[in-house]
Write a structure and sequence with these properties.
With 761 residues, the protein is an alpha/beta fold. Among the domains are: 20-171, Uracil-DNA Glycosylase, subunit E, CATH 3.40.470; 183-367, Ribonuclease H-like superfamily/Ribonuclease H (Nucleotidyltransferase, domain 5, 2-Layer Sandwich); 382-496 and 504-530, Taq DNA Polymerase, Chain T, domain 4 (Up-down Bundle), CATH 1.20.1060. It is built from 29 helices and 26 strands. The strands form 8 sheets. The chain has a 6-stranded mixed sheet, sandwiched between helices. A 5-stranded mixed sheet has the order 2-1-5-7-6, sandwiched between helices. Strands 22-23-19-26 form a 4-stranded antiparallel sheet. The longest helix is centred in the C-terminal third of the chain and has 30 residues, at 667-696.
């Protein structure tokens, strides 16, 4: 029998004269079986990564940071006492350093965090932060990246590791670290600032970055400007404690000079997350004109599944190491670096965008949205404080009533937000079968567990727990969300919030407000979002948008007929899945029709569908089959998407938005790809309309909310008809959907509603 006990080690492989040393974390099961480093699938991945560096495994010296198999593959538990390394690990560290020094390579590649931590003598060092950085260590030049085993567990890490390995192609040729020299001007005099700003005024491109201090509202403490990728200045405005850096007249002079540069329409501006910086600058009476590229938004168009923070972009596009923690030290140098590196990153992103022909989509479709959403989030929507208190009382009364019934049923006071108490009640008192968290594999009392138990056992107290939790969230997240001093509530709208291109939203730039997207329809929490006096709210809601797009992209004649004939798709679906006449469909059955329409369109699994619809799996299986039988071309479309994404891992929607799928192959990835086309096409239909509506609206009207397939405009009462017409015309503009055999011109109908508060819409 093969010896798989912890303690057996694998010998290193490769020439002692290698220019590249590869350090894995520790041997895995198959390495022990085959007595070989990086065996099986890990070896295949490593070979492919090395090809990116123009290398093979046989040219490299390969070893493990810890030479023995780690019990359970958990180095934190096996090699550390809490955070302190055990003696055995410290011994392995010394051996590894001596081993690398004996080879004397030009560069060492650490796969995973353990080798990186050993060579830098810092066991708190984060791989997420420092991967991709070329660093100096006690054993020479080091680059860390994700290990093959990490990539096998999460394939979306593969393109990141590939970029990291490409750096080795050049770095392997010399032992020293070579970086671009960057001049960072900090602590300048007023004269130096004014002279630098004059130079900025002559530049073709200018990168800018601000640092802010959060008070009641965000205010700027310094501004970084770069008109080259190797030169930047940080202009201080105030100290970190808010005290002025300059006397009043000098500060005014500096602000005037900054505004002259930023408002110069001839200079092409560059920023990372321009929505935030531009909005804050506008509050300081500085208008940013001719924004040329937002590096975060443009990169999101390139690779929506990858991180978009500047730290990540710097790690893949520049030779500069991770530096984001420096903000706690030299804030001004950090600010200048941000500006300088954003400038460098921008041109690399534009180059990549041109190479895969995504730049026109970014320039024509995404980039114009930045100013649009700056305006939307800057204005906000009025809050009726009395109605908010009424809503709070209504929901709190529901909570009190449910809590009283629950306590009586349980026989004691029980806190629904205490996982420990709810688990005890479920699994000890009621003796229900234990539901476990998918990730931690530990007993769970989360929403998913409660929902599945409630469906199966029909216990009313389980529903009470769910309803209390939902109402508490409603109060804490939405009703208690703070409005601004002017009595309005604002949200930030994130263009890069989702992989599909749909917006996400959250608190405002000042930390006030909340996510407008999360407030449930028909909730009393919408009642206190009100129109100003003499104004109305006008909503344009796309009618069954995603389902219509599915009908045409799948070219299912039955579904297309339902839409073209003007019938209600959800009533028809309910009739089909329950095998009853249309006129007998109840409201509850129609709602179920919605659920199974979504499930069938997007190839949802029976178990998931049953959970969402809150029906037993046996019933869900029958109803789902009935739905798919009614629309036979859906399965053909699903199959075609599966083949396409397995072959190319790429899809493009009706507006030209492209997505590369990096995740692990399987049904989950296929479902993502299936939902991508209708969801992203709907989102881009709304985006296209939003920017035009924003430009066309009369002066006394403005967009206040964009919620996926719904736009809400605040306007004067006498402008309701005009605004309704503008919304309808722009949202109903046709676009082309490519089906299996031909192209289809599609129009998504719009339902217009008018009200004095959001709930009425």
């Amino acid at each position: 029998m093969l010896d798989l006990r912890e303690g057996k080690s694998i010998p290193p492989e490769g020439p002692k004269t290698a220019k590249v040393v590869i350090v894995g974390e520790s041997p895995k099961k198959f390495d022990i079986i085959e007595n070989k480093m990086f065996s099986k699938f890990e070896g295949v991945h490593l070979s492919k990564l090395l090809q990116k560096a123009g290398l093979t495994k046989y040219e490299c010296y390969m070893t493990y940071a810890y030479k023995k198999k780690i019990k359970g593959d958990d180095s934190k538990k096996y090699l550390f006492n809490k955070t302190k390394p055990k003696d055995e690990l410290l011994k392995a560290q010394k051996e590894l350093i001596a081993e690398i020094e004996s080879v004397n390579p030009n560069i060492t590649i650490c796969l995973g965090s353990l080798g990186m931590q050993m060579l830098h003598n810092d066991f708190s060092m984060s791989l997420t932060k420092y991967r991709g950085s070329i660093l100096t260590s006690v054993a020479g030049k080091v680059l860390a990246t994700y290990s093959p085993s990490q990539i096998l567990g999460n394939r979306s890490l593969l393109p990141i590791a590939e970029v990291d390995f490409k750096k080795v192609k050049e770095e392997k040729n010399y032992p020293e670290i070579r970086r671009k020299e960057r001049k960072l001007l900090t602590n300048p005099t007023k004269s130096e600032i004014l002279n630098y700003l004059e130079d900025c005024n002559k530049a073709e491109y200018l990168s800018f970055d601000i640092e802010t201090i959060q008070a009641n509202r965000s205010y700027i403490d310094c501004i970084g400007l770069a008109y080259r990728d190797n030169l930047a200045m940080c202009i201080p405005i105030c100290h970190i404690d808010g005290k002025p850096w300059w006397n009043k007249s000098d500060e005014i002079e500096i602000w005037i000079a900054i505004n002259k540069v930023m408002s110069n329409p001839k200079i092409k501006k560059i920023a990372q997350n321009a929505e935030y910086d531009t909005l804050i600058l506008r509050r300081h009476l500085v208008e940013v004109r001719n924004l040329s590229i937002d590096t975060m938004c443009n990169f999101h168009c390139l690779y929506s599944e990858l991180p978009k923070g500047l730290d990540f972009l710097v790690s893949i596009y520049t030779d500069h190491p991770y530096y984001k923690d420096e903000i706690r030290g030299n804030r001004h140098e950090y600010n200048a670096k941000d500006a300088c590196l954003t400038y460098e990153v921008a041109f690399k992103i534009m180059q990549d965008s041109q190479s895969i022909n995504i730049l026109p989509f970014y320039n024509n479709h995404v980039h114009p949205l930045i100013y649009t959403y700056i305006d939307i989030q800057d204005k906000g929507i009025k809050i009726d404080k009395e109605k908010r208190e009424e809503a709070r009382k209504i929901i709190q009364a529901e909570i009190n009533d449910l809590q009283s019934k629950l306590n009586e049923k349980v026989g004691r006071e029980i806190n629904v937000n205490s996982s420990k108490q709810i688990q005890k009640y479920l699994y000890e008192d009621l003796k229900l079968p234990v539901r476990k968290n998918k990730k931690t594999k530990k007993p769970s009392a989360d929403e998913d567990a409660l929902k599945k138990l409630a469906i199966k056992y029909k216990l009313e107290e389980l529903q009470w727990i769910r309803d209390i939790r939902k109402n508490l969230k409603m109060i804490n997240t939405y009703i208690n969300a703070p409005e601004d001093d002017d009595g309005r509530m604002r949200a930030s709208f994130k263009i890069t919030g989702t992989e599909s291109g749909r917006l996400s939203s959250g608190s405002s730039v000042d930390g006030t407000g909340t996510s407008f997207h999360g407030i449930p329809k028909d909730s009393v929490a919408r009642e206190f979002f009100v129109a100003d006096e003499g104004y109305k709210l006008v909503a344009g809601d796309l009618s069954q948008a995603e389902a219509r797009i599915v009908a045409y992209v799948a070219e299912d004649d039955n579904m297309i007929y339902v839409f073209d004939s003007g019938q209600d798709i959800h009533t028809i679906n309910a009739s089909n899945i329950f095998n009853i006449p249309i006129e007998e469909v109840t409201k509850e059955q129609r709602n179920r029709g919605k659920t199974f329409s979504h499930a069938g369109n997007y190839m949802m699994g029976v178990r998931t569908c049953a959970t969402i619809a809150e029906v037993p799996e046996r019933e869900a299986k029958i109803l789902l089959k009935n739905y798919l039988d009614a629309y036979p071309m859906l399965s053909v479309w699903h199959s075609n998407v599966k083949k396409q994404v397995e072959r190319s891992r790429f899809m493009e929607n009706a507006f030209g938005r492209k997505r590369f799928f990096f995740g692990n192959a399987g049904d989950s990835l296929v479902r993502e790809a299936i939902s991508y086309y209708p969801q992203s096409t709907t989102a881009d239909c709304v985006h296209r309309a939003t920017r035009v509506i924003h430009a066309k609206l009369p002066q006394e009207s403005r967009i206040v909310v964009n919620k996926h397939d719904e736009l809400i405009v605040l306007c004067k009462e006498n402008l309701v008809e005009k605004v309704s017409k503008i919304i309808t015309e722009e949202l109903e503009k046709p676009f082309v959907v490519k089906g299996r055999t031909k192209e289809h011109k599609v129009v998504l109908p719009v339902d217009i509603s008018i009200g004095s508060n959001w709930r009425e819409l």
